[in-house]
Every structure is written in C-alpha cells, then in structure tokens.
C-alpha cells in the first residue's frame, strides 16, 4: 500500500531518493515537487487539493483522458489471467496477437506487422537495428547512415538521443553514435522569414537531398522525422514539406520512418500524422497514445517492403525486449484503441474540437505577446515575442516561456514552455466548453506574463 503523508513529507522523500528525468536536482529540491495524487477526464488534483486542467495529456499521452473504466478493467482482468509471458521462444499470448491484428487494421495499408517494445525510445532503437539489418540482408551493408533533424526528439536511450537533434543531450553523452547525421528543421520562424511557407517547405525538404548527396546515396539507410515536432516546440511544417521529403526518399530508395509517438492515435485529427501530411512511411514508431499512457508500451509498425525482406530472407533478427508484447500492456492498448473507435475521437478532433481550437488560437494571436499561434489537430503552440509585427524575440536571459509557465502552474493549467514557445496537447476527449475554459486560462496567464514584462522593462 502507498502510505498517507503530508505534501512536505512527500517532497522530502522525493528529493532524498528519486532522481527525476530531465531535472536539475538541486533546484527541484529547493522548491519541492508538486505532488499529483489523482486525475479524472482532463483534470488533475495535487496533494493540496488544487484542481489543474491538464493541457499536456500527462506527457502527450493520455489521449482518452483519465479514469476510463474500460482500460482499468482490461488491465485488472489481464493481470489476473496472465500477468506476463515472453514471446522470445516460440510462444505468444492472445492480447499481443489481438493487438497486432488491430494495429494492422488502424494503421495505413502498407502496415501488416508490428515489433513491440516498451517505450518510444526502445521503438526508435528498434528502428536503427531494423533499418541496418534490412540493408544488410539486401547485400548493401554500407547503407548505415540515418538522417534526422536538429531539434527533433526521438527518445533518451543512446540511439534515441542520437537520432534526436537536441544539442544539450548530445553534449552530455558523447552523442550522436556513429552514422547518424542531422539536417535543419522545417521551422519557418527560424529559417524561412521573408519566404512564403510553401516555398520554405520545399527549401527545407531540399536540405535532405543535399545531405544525401554529401553522405553518398549508397551509404544512406533511412530518414526519420516526427510529422509535427512535439518536444521541439510543436513545430508544424509547411504543407509542401512532407510530400517533397517523400519524393526525395523515393528518388534515392531510402527508407522513410515516421516517428508517430506523439502524432499517432488521433492527435492530428487523423489516426496517424503521416496521413495528415500525405506521406507513406516504411516504418512507424509509436508509444504514448497506444495505451493513452495508462501502462508503458511502444513499438514499430513495419511496412511490407521491410517486413517481406526480414521474414523471407532475414533468418533470426537478433533483437528484442523482455516486455515486447507484454500481455497486460497489450490488453490495455486493445481497450484503448477500441475506445478511440467507439467514442469516434479521431473524428471528434478532425471535425469538431480541432477546428474549434484553431479558431480560439487565431483569436489568441491578437494578444500583444503572441507572435505566431498555430495548431494541428489538438496540438498548439504560441510563440511569445517582444514585437508582434517583427517577431522580435525576448532577451533569452528573461526566460519568458518559463515566466508564463510559472503563471500557468500557479493558476491551475498545465502548459509547457519550450524556449519561448508555449505548447499544448490536451486529451482528445476535451469538449468545446473545456476548450473555452482552457483558452480563458491561457489568456489570463498571457496577461499576467505581459504585466510582468511591462513591470520589469523586458519589452
Ligand atoms: N519519439 C517522440 C516523437 C517522442 O515525443 C518521445 C517522447 N516524448 C519519444 C520518441 C520517446 O518516447 P519514450 O519517452 O516513451 O521513450
């Protein structure tokens, strides 16, 4: 049983023993963690009884919202029936098979196979192993290089962090590992001002071709990207970007990998982000929304082009995890995907709350602090700027995003700051009335941040 304690007692034990991910330990110990104790629908409660609107779906994952009975029951029943068995030694379990079948049904037509992992990072490690193995089996072992983008996020394991383009992560671990290289991201504010978005999308895609020619096409194994970069700050590419990336991959025969860890399972108003942006990946990493975060599960959808080679010519694939196809995780995923279907959440985002959020963000764009306001399905980002017309950034020393995030945290709203971009990705079950409630909270926090900026002379 979990003991009953006061907030201060939890905080003391937390800083004494728990090394949190991506955290400055001394600074957290000075403040003390916020202790989250329960949740329902799109709301969280902390140990002091404060109610918080969770506009980040936990960590981009609680797509069906908190407290869904179907997922809780699926886990409980499967724990009682068969809590674990592996799939290494010519055995399988019904939940894993049923989930593999259902995934083949809800993913684009080129996918009829899945490799299960425990997380998005493990999924991307699998991608690295699998694309290199694919080319090896085809007698082209020199095709090793995987091209990714700066400011991408693909996880925190050695391969995941190497594929990712986060400079701070690379600095701390001697990364990237060999044969992973990066091109610039399709972020119009950074690289495209003065051009139309469509022209910029084509230009940003051309950087892939330039890199392929620089490396040598015979050495390139794959290109990987998130349809919309999530952790990088909800960077929504121009419409021209992905179709052009597809053409370039086709031209050189290199594998195209879509990291759908955030964009998958309805987030963009389509089942998968590649469907929203019109491209046809050979491999697709998933995690998070597959179980709505109720239990860890990740994996890779393997398209027919790759699956055929691995199955017919590959022999044994020397890769796998203890929890590949974990029966409880798979049972929860099955319940979760069926619930997404029953509640018609993809349609709800596409036809109803997605467009409604887009309208609300268009209005937020008029706030004097907001330089750009963009959404894609139920992901959104506001760029905070000093001068709206010129998109002049604040002095980085101000940390305007963190100032705004502080106001959100104190006012019952979870919104994340990535540099000066304030981002949201609320649960897909959110209603129009709850979008109104969220947007009113955002507006209030923007006003409080503006008042700080005026008082402190940051403008
Ligand atoms: N890929 C993307 C696009 C992600 O956003 C994340 C996590 N935020 C990962 C991979 C890594 O997933 P995990 O944290 O489950 O390892």
TrEMBL record:
Q: Which Gene3D superfamilies match?
A: Aspartate Aminotransferase, domain 1 (3.90.1150.10), Type I PLP-dependent aspartate aminotransferase-like (Major domain) (3.40.640.10)
Q: Name one GO molecular function term.
A: transaminase activity
Q: Which cofactor is essential here? A: pyridoxal 5'-phosphate
Give the keywords, sorted. Aminotransferase, Pyridoxal phosphate, Transferase
Cite the CDD domains for this sequence. Answer: OAT_like
Protein family membership: Belongs to the class-III pyridoxal-phosphate-dependent aminotransferase family.
Name of the protein in its database record: Aspartate aminotransferase family protein
């Amino acid at each position: 049983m979990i003991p009953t304690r006061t907030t201060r007692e939890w905080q003391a034990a937390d800083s004494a023993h728990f090394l949190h991910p991506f955290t400055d330990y001394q600074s957290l110990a000075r403040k003390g963690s916020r202790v989250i104790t329960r949740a329902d629908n799109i709301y969280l409660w902390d140990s002091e009884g404060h109610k918080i609107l969770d506009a980040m779906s936990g960590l981009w994952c609680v797509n069906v919202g908190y407290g869904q009975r179907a997922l809780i029951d699926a886990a409980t029943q499967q724990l009682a029936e068969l809590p674990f068995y592996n799939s290494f030694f010519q055995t399988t379990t019904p939940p894993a098979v049923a989930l593999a079948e259902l995934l083949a049904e809800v993913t684009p037509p080129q996918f009829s196979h899945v490799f299960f992992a425990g997380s998005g990072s493990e999924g991307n490690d699998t991608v690295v192993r699998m694309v290199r193995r694919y080319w090896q089996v085809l007698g082209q072992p020199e095709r090793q290089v995987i091209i990714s983008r700066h400011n991408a996020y693909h996880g925190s394991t050695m391969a995941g962090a190497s594929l990712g383009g986060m400079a701070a992560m690379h600095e701390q671990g001697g990364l990237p590992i060999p044969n992973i290289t990066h091109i610039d991201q399709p972020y119009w504010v950074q690289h495209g001002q003065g051009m139309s978005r469509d022209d910029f999308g084509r230009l940003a895609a051309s950087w892939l071709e330039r890199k392929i020619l620089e490396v040598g096409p015979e050495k390139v194994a794959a290109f990987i990207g998130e349809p919309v970069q999530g952790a990088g700050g909800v960077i929504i590419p121009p419409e021209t970007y992905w179709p052009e990336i597809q053409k370039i991959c086709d031209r050189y025969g290199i594998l195209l990998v879509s990291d759908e860890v955030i964009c998958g399972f309805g987030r963009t108003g389509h089942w998968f982000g590649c469907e929203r942006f019109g491209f046809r990946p050979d491999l697709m990493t998933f995690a998070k929304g597959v179980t709505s975060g109720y239990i860890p599960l990740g994996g890779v959808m393997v398209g027919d082009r790759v699956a055929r080679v691995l199955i017919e010519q590959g022999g044994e694939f020397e890769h796998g995890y203890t929890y590949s196809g974990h029966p409880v995780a798979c049972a929860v995923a099955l319940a979760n995907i069926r619930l997404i279907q029953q509640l018609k959440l993809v349609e709800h985002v596409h036809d109803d709350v997605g467009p409604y959020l887009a309208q609300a963000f268009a209005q937020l764009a008029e706030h004097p602090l907001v330089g750009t306001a963009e959404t894609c399905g139920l992901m959104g980002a506001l760029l905070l700027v000093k001068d709206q017309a010129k998109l002049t950034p604040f002095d980085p020393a101000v940390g305007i995003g963190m100032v705004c995030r502080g106001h959100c945290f104190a006012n019952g709203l979870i919104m994340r700051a990535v540099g000066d971009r304030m981002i949201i990705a609320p649960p897909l079950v959110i209603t129009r009335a709850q979008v109104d409630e969220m947007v009113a909270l955002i507006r209030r926090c923007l006003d409080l941040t503006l008042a700080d900026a005026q008082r402190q002379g940051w403008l």
